[in-house]
Amino acid sequence: MSDPDYEAWVERYISAWRSNDPDEIGALFSDDAAYLPTSYSEPWQGRDKIVAEWLARKDEVGDWTFEYDVIGAIDGIGFVRGVTVYPKDAEEYHNLWEVSLDKSGSCTRFVEWWMLKPLPK
Question: How high is the mean pLDDT in each 10-residue block of the chain (121 residues)?
Answer without folding.
Answer: 85 97 98 95 97 96 94 93 93 96 95 88 67
